Amino acid sequence: MKFMYKFADGAESEVEVSKEIGAVILDSRRVEDNLDRKERYHCLAFDAVDFEGEEFADKASPESILMKTLIISIWQKRLKISETP
Question: CA 53 from chain center: how many Å?
């Protein structure tokens, strides 16, 4: 079985594989195409979503960003102090 691969730069490559591997490649392509068709219709309607819900929540609050920055600066100071002989 021969498969033709087309790359983004326009190059083409032809690969010959055994029938068993060719069957696996064809099956995986079929499954991928079916999943693409299935996912095409999965839409998130903004009318159905609570805008204050978890879907649009920002996990990082200003307090958590500040604490993270402070902790990083403290550790950087400690590491600089411990690196000096």
Answer: 23
